[in-house]
Amino acid sequence: MELNEYRWGIAFFDLEAKKEFIYEFGVVLLCPQRLSVLDSYSTLVRPDDPYFDSLEPVMSNGITRDELASAPTFPQIAHKVYDFLHGRIWAGHFIDGWDCPRIQEEFEKFGLRAPQDMGTIDSWKLLKERFGEHRARNLKMATLANCFDLGNQTHRSLDDVRMNIDVLMKCSMFLLLEPSLPNALITNSWFSQNDTTIPVPVSVETPSNAAVQEGSNVYDGFLEPDKVLIPFISASLVPSSRGGQKIQVLHKDHPLQLYCRRLRVIFGPNSKYSDHADRLKLNILVDPSPSLCKVLDVCDNLAKWVSVKSDSSSEWLPVVKIKNHLADSSRIDYQKKIYSSGIQLHIPYGDSTIYATEIYQRDASGNDDMVFFSTVDVDELKSLFASETLVDACFSLDVYDYEQQNTAGIRLVAKKLIIHANYSSSEYE
């Protein structure tokens, strides 16, 4: 998906619809940091004939045929819907299975350009994974609303969106409080006294150390792609150490740095490449995971947008090299495998010819031994980063703009590389 920019805010939306038509749309734009409402919009939608003629006088949610008769048609409100949704994170309850495909179908039905999301948050999937069905009879909105005394679900778009947000906030608070609550208090608090359902006991034990370690970041300050919260990525101009300003990519107001496991090396360093200052350019080309590509694409869009807004005329080079941006010689077939995308990890070195990147080798027992170098040696690096080698990488995102060469983009600067010695990627597949 190609978008010119990421737009701020999470768009929680809901549709009231039949199989053939949408008859109500509601959306709340939520700030991902303060969780405050930035904007909201709702409207009834008049179905086209002959669907309108077949409507019952009063719908099950109380909407009347007369109200729909005076409502705008979908083409009349499509621009408003598009403006709220395009380029934003979409969120809603069972949104992946219902609302997302239905809104796309409605735009296509009228020959209109459909909005594109920058990712989706299906609260049903999220609650199933993080909250669990054992804490409630099911994860339907009405059931969860009853658990938290939020009232009855009206099945009106804007009401349901607001209830969805309230349910998520209540569930989040409960998960934060749960480890500190007595077990009896947890199990006896879910349903009203009139409810005959027997709650399932919930353990208040914290996860094992192993589970915590597995889910946490291995290196402080570096995030695995799956741990990055897309709505919290931003790009802004900051003072540069060389004077002036530079673009910095941030996550929750801190410089974004990434940690990726088992990246497959496509190419090692090559001595025939040099940088803008005619210095040896030491890069390794690796095969990125889909989750890493998603994060980097968002960073690219944000940084490019700031670059354009700051009146840069440089050509923006995408950080993820895809088919059309890879030279033909870079598309190599190893064991029937064609690499049609890649990212470059830059290994910097100083005037003392010592690499700024820490490089380690991991043995079969999982021990990491630091590799020491006496000088910059491309052939030595090439032998370490042979094609198909697996590498763990910690790297930062450095936005550059070379006015003389008229190029700009994001450089991925390797801070730490761990080579899985004597193992090829095929052993992990």
Description:
It is built from ten helices and 18 strands. It has 429 residues and is α/β, with parallel strands linked by helices. The longest helix is centred in the middle third of the chain and has 21 residues, at 157-177. It is elongated. It starts with 9 loop residues before the first strand and ends in a 5-residue tail after the last strand. Keywords: Exonuclease, Hydrolase, Nuclease. InterPro entries: Ribonucl_H, RNaseH-like_sf, RNaseH_sf. GO terms for molecular function: 3'-5' exonuclease activity; nucleic acid binding.
Which properties best describe this structure?
single chain, Nucleotidyltransferase, domain 5, OB fold (Dihydrolipoamide Acetyltransferase, E2P), 5-stranded mixed β-sheet, 25% helix, RNaseH_sf, nucleic acid binding, hydrolase, Ribonucl_H
Task: Write a brief structural summary.
The chain is of the alpha/beta class and 429 residues long. 25% of the residues lie in helices and 27% in strands. The chain has 10 helices and 18 strands.
